[in-house]
Amino acid sequence: MSDPWQQFKALPWRSLVPTGFLVALIAALFDTGIYYIASTVASVREALLILLQPPLVLLVRLGLSISLGMVAVLALEVWFNPAPIYSGTLWALFLCVLVGSVFLSFFGSTLGLRPLFFPLTDVFLIGTAVGIFWQGRRYWRY
Q1: What are the helix and strand counts (H, E) for the chain?
Q2: Nearest to 87 by CA among 18, 135, 21, 133
Q3: Residues 64, 118: contact at Cβ < 8 Å?
Q4: pLDDT, tens digit, 9 for 90 and up, residues 61-79
């Protein structure tokens, strides 16, 4: 039998950690940009008020979280090309995106970042995991 701890240590962390923090930073900058644009442009503010109403906000946040997970896999494949990707690598990528998002949510207020579409909720976690495994479905068999 193989040792799970050894497999965890053997993951390509030098590619996964920068990818996770880059994707979390992209999400935080997107949120902040939309927040500041909405504070200056009235039509964008009105559109966001419609998008952030209770029945629609769930679908918008879920869709954006799924797309964020897909961007994480694409960034891992293109910019931070690690050793072969398999399902354990995708789980580690999810962990890195989660840690990067937690880090930016704690220290984001000191940097002026505002969580509008990507707050740390269950919708964010489920959407990001679905996006990562949807985009990385060709790596499931390993």
Answers
A1: 6, 0
A2: 133
A3: yes
A4: 999 999 999 999 999 999 8
Burial class (CB in 10 A: 0-12, 13-18, 19+), 54: exposed
pLDDT tens digit sequence for 17-71: 999 999 999 999 998 899 899 999 999 999 999 988 988 999 999 999 999 999 9
**Is-contact 114 32, C-beta < 8 A?**
yes
Q: Which two tokens stand for residue 121?
A: 């909720």
Burial state string for 67-90 with b = 16 or more CB within 10 A and e = fewer than 16: ebbbbbbebbbeebebeebeeebb
DSSP state of 53: S
Which tokens belong to 115? 């969580």
Place of tokens 């193989």: 2
